Amino acid sequence: MTGDLLVILQIAGRRCALDALQVKSVIELGAVTPIPRAPHWIAGITALRSQALTVIDCRRAIGLSANGSDAAWPTDHRAAVVSDGGHSYALLVDGIEDITTAAGEVGQVPGGFGAEWTKVARGMIETMAGPALLMDLSALLTGPEAQRSEIEAAA
Amino acid sequence: MDDLLAEFIAETREMLEASGGELVAWEADPTDRARLDAIFRFVHTVKGNCGFFDFPRLAGLSHAAEDALADCRSGRRDPDPTLVSAVLAIIDRIAQMIDAIEAGEPFPEGGDDDLIAALDVSRETAPDSGSEGGLEGASEGSGPTLHAPAASLLASGGDEPGSAPARRADAAAQRTIRLPVELLDRVMSGVSDMVLARNDLAHRLRQAGTQPTIDGPFERLTTILSDVRDAITRMRMQRIETLFGALPRLVRDVAAECGKQVMVDLDGGDVELDREMIETIRDPLTHIIRNAIDHGIEAPSARLGQGKREIGLLAIAARQSGNTISIVISDDGRGLDEERIIAKAIATGLVAPQDRAGMSRDKVLNLIFEPGFSTAEAVSNVSGRGVGLDVVRQNLEKVGGSIKVTSRPGHGTTFTLQIPLTLSIIAGLTVEVAGHRFAIPQSYVEEIVQGTARALDLTRMGETALVTFRGQRVPCLMLDEVLALAQAGAAPAKEPTLVMLRLASGDLFALAVEGIHNHGDLVVKPLAPAVMKSGLYAGSTLLDDGQPVLLLDVANIAAQHALVSDTRARVLGADDDNAADHGDAGARAMLFTDFTGRRCAVRLELVQRIETAPTSAIDRSAARPRVVIDGLILPLIGLPDAPLAQARVRLLRLSDGACELLYAVREVEDAVELTEALSPVPEDPLAEAITLIGGAPATLIDAHELFARYGEPPVTAQRPRCTLPEGEWARAILAPLVTAAGYDIVPEAEADPSTIGILFEDVYEVAEALGRPLPPRIIRLRDQPDAPAGTDTIYRYDREALLAALAAEAAAVAAARTGEAA
Predict the structure, then answer these.
(1) Is B316 a domain residue?
(2) Segments forming the whole domain that contains residue B434
(3) Residue of B523, B533, B548 lying closest to A33 (CB–CB)
(4) Domain coverage including residue A80
(5) Number of domains within chain B
(6) Pair B615, B753 in one domain
(7) pLDDT tens per residue, range B126-168
(8) Taking the CB of the first residue and of the last residue of chain B, which one, N or C, has fewer CB atoms within 10 A?
């Protein structure tokens, strides 16, 4: 991992990292059209040029805001655009900080990162800007329900 | 050249090119099952298409090759090199024939039999040692010179390869190139981006104010862009009609081959889909149709025996739901035989006998899509070896589609093909509810109804809402409730807009929305799987202003609310046509031709009866003509301006319950069912709509307007009354005449002052001489033709004078009565 470019994000007040190769761009988020009866962690869809992006609220997708209050975290007016399985998503986060290089390999921490975070994290990574939690994009995009059922299935 | 023929040639040639590699590979390893299957499919398709086009030689060659290959596939024969060569020779011959057909040149006669004989179909691998001879013979031809026998076979057919017409490079009238679809996709999304950039620029230009130096070129850019966009769109999309167009002929021909009568019902031809998809489903569809006619629909005599109509029905309907197209092919034939399928599956080793008990009927039926499966007992020229269905499924799955079958024994079989549209442009309607906008595919929209809740007869039955649409109770979904957007306690809309949606299964339901925005072409893009899971949306699309909107998955929403009946309902409905006729008497009309020669219809409920009245009963003295029928004076419409030539006139007696009026018609045709769509005729207030009856247009009379204009309660006409003289002559001869002229005959005792007395002159003279009371109005008749001078009498056979006198007296009576009334 060392030397790989990472995008550093703030999600729910924590410093997280995404592989820069997975992030196609960072956009100014325009109007978001809500999707009635969609899972709560999907904020809606927005248009990027002629493409429709599914807007994911990362905090909710991790399963955090279920018990916390929404106002606890600021939301960046920018969003990271990622692509998974042929679909494009815009990730709604607290803030998009920087692009930096990894300064080590992905490692685990004794005691883990907490139930919600463990599901979506590949592990801790040292970067030039300090330690960050490296996110597993596909796990994040499946939402909290799927993660929960996976855990139950494993247990 | 015939389009279909050109397509056939192009397709065959394409397959020849594609199978070129397979042929070589098969030659190298004749036991390669996959190659064998590919070549088998090729000859099978050629055979099928030839039957369609009447190329008996091609059909003969391909049938022979297919037979031989089928034996190999079933293991009855080993694909030895001799066979390979013979098959290759046939394929080469097919290629030459195709070239000749395209060039429009006759192909030299003869030679086919040698090629077919070379296949030696009869020589099957026998389980005993007898097969060795064949194998030995084969080994002679093996080795690097394998293809040589093929060439020599062709030569021995009296037809050197060189003499075949050279393939003409300029064969195609329209130059075409093939492009990878990804490239098209890229161009298309690039153009979409350009349109959005243009819209953005337009917005900024408007803000900046008019700048003539920029506006001109900008307008030009806009025009060019919309042209390009149209062209790009057309590059990919094609109406499924192009595919459907060939089906009636195919059905007819296949049915004729099988000695069956089949009626085809096509629906949804305006659904557009990717050209590529059309090409993908062309063969599957053809195979299914052939199978349905060959195996599904019974022979006419068998059908009659089962109480079905002699003519089988094959219904093919296409519907679009977001990024899926479903094509439903239903027949009303004998249905699939579960037991035979399972027996066959066990025999071919597809299913272990012990697994039988655990298999549902559905699962059993879907075994027909397994490779190498066929239930047909006799191999026919039309279909037969199960090549169709396994290839059908493979081809569909290759593009992410699916196929399933449902069947009821004795009632028919329904194949449902689902084809995805990764990128499609559909006509859509944008609706609004609770501040959100959604798109609905236009193909579902039957009609948009707007009106007050009362007018729509919107009623709540438990949790379900019903509306009345054309006299039919239709379930109604509230879109805001479906999407959980309804605000608690909010009053239901006073004037909902209802979008009437018809599903592929034929079910109708209403979707209540708050408003309709516009409709136009929408580019549908797939949604993220997490959103698709909700089952409410089929895709997303961008409006012209760049705002994304969601496309509702109408079929799924209906299914979630249990509004979908079995897809077969449509066909069964058609099957029970006659029963439905009696049940649905809501739309019947009396068809007639009026005096202007116009073909008209009037709703049957209005027609009391058909009257025939003498022309003399028509009174045209007033501004509006009247007619006296059964002692009632009724308004009469529909008369020509010119006097009527005929003595009697046919009248439709229409009633709205209180008022009656008569419609004069030239000819009454029949009572008919209104089955076709009614299109309004705003320019003619008296016409409710124009519709098709028996294939010809007919104007449906607007009863409301008719009665508003002409209706009036009937007035009892006081028929003038007369008394007749006594005697046989008066009763037998005078009475009918007087009655026919519209007078009532009363006995003397009932005579009142308004009664006209008809007397013989001699009786009158006697009465006058004796001073007996005489009726106030008298017509005196005399016996002699020549009137004695000075007497006011009428010769008793002077019809004209008599009727005129009666009319004059009657008029005087009427005048006197109105005088009294005044």
Answers:
(1) yes
(2) 424-565
(3) B548
(4) 5-154
(5) 6
(6) no
(7) 443 333 333 333 333 333 333 444 444 444 433 333 333 444 4
(8) C
| Structure tokens, B378 | 């006799």
User: Taking a contact as any Cβ pair under 8 Å apart, which residues of chain B between 512 and 531 contact chain A?
Assistant: 523, 525-531
Distance of CA B619 to the CA centre of its chain: 47
Residue B369 CB coordination number (10 Å) = 20
B125 located within any domain: yes
Of the candidates B490, B507, B291, B458, which has an alpha carbon nearest to the alpha carbon of residue B389? B291
CATH number for the domain spanning B774: value is 3.40.50
Tell me the CATH number at A34.
Answer: 2.40.50.180
Q: How far apart, in Å, are the Cα atoms of B348 and each of A93, B71, B340, B375, B595?
A: 59, 14, 12, 11, 72
Out of A37, A50, A143, closest to residue B530 by CB: A143
Pairing between β-strand B508-513 and β-strand B472-478 as defined by DSSP bridges: parallel
3-state secondary structure of B540: strand
Q: Please write the tens of the pLDDT for every residue from A24-51.
A: 889 888 888 888 888 888 889 998 876 7
CA distance B74 to chain A (A): 41
Assign B388 a pLDDT band (cuts: 50, 70, 90): low
**Shortest CA distance from B544: residue in chain A:** A50
Structure-token pair, residue A43? 């904020």
Q: Are residues B193 and B308 in the same domain?
A: no
Same domain, B381 and B296: yes
Query: B196, B216, B237 — which closes off a domain?
Result: B237
Residue numbers in B near A142 (CB within 8 A): 530
Q: Is the CB of residue B318 less than 8 Å from the CB of residue B283?
A: no
B473 and B525 in a single domain? The answer is: yes
Residue ranges of the alpha helices (H) in A3-131? 58-62, 115-120
Split into its structural domains, chain A has a count of 1
Q: Map B417-465 to HEC letters.
A: EEEECCCEEEEEEEEEECCEEEEEEHHHEEEEEECCCCCCCCEEECCEE
How high is the ipTM of this complex?
0.85
